[in-house]
Amino acid sequence: MLQRSRNTAVIAALLAGIMATPVVAESPVTNQELTDPSAIRVLLAADLETTLSSQMNGTLGELNVTLGKQVKKDAVLAQLNCQEAQARAKVAAAELTMAKQNLSAKQNLRKLDAVGDLEVAIASTEAQKADGARLMAQAQSGYCVVKAPFAGRVAKIHVKAYQTVSAGAPLFDLVSDGALKVRLNVPSTRLPTLREGMPLEVSIYETGKTYTAHITAINARVDAVAQTVELEARLDAEHPDLIAGMSGIARFPAANE
């Protein structure tokens, strides 16, 4: 019994020592920033990125894309069941044809003084109204097809094939191809030395490489809390090994320090 009590006391002491020892999670970002005060955190972002949403209530068919797939501008990403919308478009087209025929008949009767100007004007208005309804039905039919507004890659798929969605429901996240933007925040004290076109070097953690870039935009407002100003830069060339979301650090040339 005495031996068991001693063992328990030893284990308790060891656990207390472990709990008292702080655990430090080393971060590559923090370490590099501590050793190099001139290093500034950066994040890579696509030039264009958007979330495509459904513009109508309906049921999806098969999806024509997969995660990470590269798509061209105006490529069809998905299609909803359009039978109801197409039927409304046909009805609107038929009503427009009937309104035009009525207007033509009224105009002919007017030449014979069989009807007055008011009846012709009303028939003309009805034809314009029917034409507007046809255009609206055609626009709604166009909502059935989801197309890529620009060339890029699918970054996220929010839905599944044959799923019923409502208007406004997110469908896909799309990011553009091409040279990436670099976002960074620098101390506001450096604002007088900053200018568009200024070069900088960007080191990316995921690739372990350094790339050249230049400033393309300087925010017109300083963050009063952090005392920093937001910048945007663009890489000088396209690099297939880089994708949006990667991070790293940026350094300005020594002459501009």
Automatic annotation (TrEMBL):
Domain (Multidrug resistance protein MdtA-like barrel-sandwich hybrid) ranges: 51-172
The protein's name in its UniProt record: RND family efflux transporter, MFP subunit
Coiled coil (residue ranges): none
PANTHER family (alphabetical): HLYD FAMILY OF SECRETION PROTEINS, MULTIDRUG RESISTANCE PROTEIN MDTA
Record's signal peptide: 1-25
Highest taxon of source: Bacteria
GO-annotated cellular components: efflux pump complex
Family: Belongs to the membrane fusion protein (MFP) (TC 8.A.1) family.
Keywords, in A-Z order: Coiled coil, Signal
Keyword Signal set for record: yes
Signal found in the keyword field: yes
One GO molecular-function entry: efflux transmembrane transporter activity
